[in-house]
Structure formats: structure tokens, C-alpha cells
Design brief:
Oligomer: single chain
Largest sheet: none
CATH class of the domain at 1-115: Mainly Alpha
Number of helices: 21
CATH superfamily of the domain at 1-115: Tetratricopeptide repeat domain
Number of strands: 0
Strand content: under 5%
CATH topology of the domain at 1-115: Serine Threonine Protein Phosphatase 5, Tetratricopeptide repeat
Radius of gyration: 22 Å
Order of helices and strands: HHHHHHHHHHHHHHHHHHHHH
Structural class: mainly alpha
Helix content: over 70%
CATH architecture of the domain at 1-115: Alpha Horseshoe
């Protein structure tokens, strides 16, 4: 087996289970602390914990892995690539699940760093060892789209779908990837095929497929039925379907209804804020984005933070917007939209 293939293996969650951590040898107290800090988005604190783990001679591979994940959080993708490569090179030669995990992270770091060709090589190696990896087919297809290789991308997407035809979340991801690179109609063909061939499609799945097909009336009719079963995603898509028709008042009421009955949710607050922006009620929009930011550990902190800045701009509080934008770019320095926004604010 070649050196590249020895390194390869499976993307997972941000933190390995404690049992996996302790199973890798050495005490991992500081590594565990570092990964917990990663979960709270305190990446600098995490790096400090990993430095302490190194001083205490904890597991070197997991320290490098943790540093790689923290570096990605800090958008230091070159550094992340180095850490994940280091972690993989510390392998004892036996391919384990943690190796797959780190290879997926390595490929993600390459893509974030504008190196889709390198990412594709990683996915090639993963599939060379584990051809049943459905995620790798989808992710390799996405990298191939970045490289302008539509035919290879479509072949990989077809393979991913054939291996899990009822995974409608993945199908929608494929549609979005194709749409991003100018192949929206091809993506919609995948979606239409589900409507034409699926024998038992529930209201939620049919509703969101209609949404992406642009048939908003059928979408909200199905999603009105689906929301009675609970799930936050049904409310999200229902509100989006009404917003897509220009009915921001009803969309806002859908989101507000969810919040009053089910409690805080970052995505709901973000969509509510976007509706309020569209309605030109900028103060309510600001309040919605800020409420979303108050939810600890939410995965939309970057989006909510940027939208909060936009709301301040609409309120013509350019000084506050500029202060927040400077802080935002400290955390997300590669956000091109934010960089353009900073240039705009410098003229106010």
C-alpha cells in the first residue's frame, strides 16, 4: 500500500467520543478540554489547551488533530492542513476510524484553502480504501465541480444517490452544489425524479422538494400539513416558501408562532430577522438576530453576526456597524462579503 493510502480515512463529528480519546493511549484530559472549547467556538482557548496537552505529553496525534480543527475555526487553513498532515503521519500504520475522520478534515481544509485538486486526491484515497463511503462520493463530486469537471462530478453524485436513494437531505445538498456552479436545471431534474418515482413521500419531504423546484404554492400547502408533526425544519421551509412569494408578513408569523410554542432556535431567529429586513422593520430585524446570537453553541453565529451588522447599517448606525464589523473580521478574516462591507462603511 502506498504512503498516501496509508494515511487515508472518515469524517465525523467535531469531537471524538471520550472512549476513543482515551483508547488512543496517554492521558487526554487537556485534549478533552480543548475539544470542549472548540465546541463553544473558543478556538484560541482550545489551542492553549492543546499546548498544555503537549507539555503534559498527551496523545500527539489527537493534539495535532485538535489543533487542525481549531485552526479551521480561525480560518487558518494552511496551518490546518499542516496539523492534519502531521496527525496522519503519526499513524502506527494501522488504519482506524480516526484516520478517516482526519482525512475528511484534511480534505475540507484543502477546499477552504482554495485547493480542490488536493482535496480530490484525499477523497480518491478514501474511496480507494473504502468504496462504500457515500459521503466521499458526494464531497469528491463537489470538489470536481470546483475544478470544472462536471462529468466526473455528476458521476459521483449519481453514485451517492444510488447508494442511498431515500436520503433527501443529501439530494438537496447535491442540488445546491449543482445550482452554485450553474447547473440548477440538472439539480432540479434529480428533485423532479423523486416526485415522479418515490412511492411514499411524506409532506415534509415533498414540500421542501417543491420549494427547491420553485413551486412555492405546492410547497407551502405540503409544509402546512407537515408542521403539525412538529419539527423545526418544517417551520423553516414553510416560512421560506411564503417569503419566496413575497408574503413576509405570513412568513414572520410562522416563525414567531414557532418561537412562542417551541422556544428559542437560532435558525428561526435568523429567518425571522431576514423577513423583518424585507419588511423594512429594521429594529425588529436587529432584535431577532441578537436573540439568535444569545443561544449558546449555535452553529449560525457567523451568519447572525453578519446580519446584525447589516441591520445596524439599515438603521443608519454606521459607527456601531463598523465596530462590530471590525470584530467580525477578526474572527472571519476570509469573508469577502464582509471585506466589501468594510469598504462601504469606510465611505460613510
Amino acid at each position: 500500500m502506498g504512503k498516501t493510502h496509508k494515511k487515508i480515512v472518515m469524517a465525523g463529528v467535531c469531537c471524538l467520543m471520550i472512549s476513543m480519546l482515551t483508547g488512543c493511549g496517554n492521558d487526554t484530559t487537556k485534549i478533552t478540554e480543548g475539544m470542549q472549547l472548540v465546541e463553544t467556538l473558543d478556538y484560541q482557548g482550545a489551542l492553549t489547551a492543546f499546548d498544555e496537552a503537549e507539555a503534559q505529553k498527551e496523545n500527539r496525534r489527537l493534539i495535532a488533530r485538535g489543533r487542525g480543527i481549531a485552526s479551521m475555526g480561525l480560518t487558518e487553513y494552511d496551518q490546518a492542513v499542516q496539523y492534519f498532515t502531521e496527525a496522519l503521519e503519526l499513524s502506527d500504520g494501522w488504519v482506524q476510524n480516526v484516520d478517516y475522520d482526519m482525512n475528511y478534515y484534511l480534505a475540507a481544509a484543502y477546499r477552504k484553502n482554495g485547493q480542490p485538486a488536493e482535496a480530490k486526491k484525499v477523497y480518491d484515497a478514501i474511496l480507494g480504501l473504502k468504496p462504500e463511503e457515500k459521503d466521499a462520493y458526494f464531497l469528491r463530486g463537489s470538489a470536481e465541480l470546483e475544478l470544472g469537471d462536471y462529468e466526473s462530478a455528476k458521476a459521483d453524485f449519481d453514485q451517492a444517490i444510488s447508494m442511498d436513494p431515500k436520503n433527501y437531505d443529501r439530494l438537496i445538498e447535491i442540488y445546491e452544489a449543482l445550482a452554485d456552479y450553474g447547473y440548477r436545471e440538472v439539480g432540479q431534474e434529480y428533485l423532479q425524479n423523486v416526485l415522479d418515482t418515490a412511492k411514499q413521500l411524506d409532506a415534509y419531504d415533498s414540500g421542501r422538494i417543491y420549494y427547491y423546484l420553485g413551486d412555492y404554492q405546492k410547497a407551502y400547502l405540503a409544509l402546512e400539513e407537515a408542521k403539525g408533526k412538529g419539527g423545526v425544519d418544517s417551520y423553516l421551509y414553510l416560512g421560506k416558501a411564503y417569503a419566496a412569494t413575497g408574503d413576509y408578513n405570513y412568513a414572520s408569523s410562522v416563525y414567531s408562532n414557532y418561537l412562542s410554542k417551541q422556544g428559542p432556535d437560532a435558525e428561526i431567529y435568523n429567518q425571522l430577522g431576514l423577513c423583518e429586513l424585507a419588511k423594512k422593520d429594521y429594529q425588529k430585524a436587529l432584535e431577532a438576530f441578537q436573540a439568535g446570537k444569545q443561544i449558546e453553541g449555535n452553529s449560525l453565529m457567523q451568519t447572525l453576526s453578519f446580519n446584525e451588522i447589516v441591520a445596524y447599517e439599515y438603521l443608519q448606525d454606521y459607527q456601531k456597524a463598523a465596530v462590530l464589523l471590525n470584530a467580525y473580521l477578526q474572527n472571519y478574516p476570509d469573508d469577502q462579503a464582509a471585506i466589501r462591507e468594510q469598504q462601504f462603511l469606510s465611505t460613510r
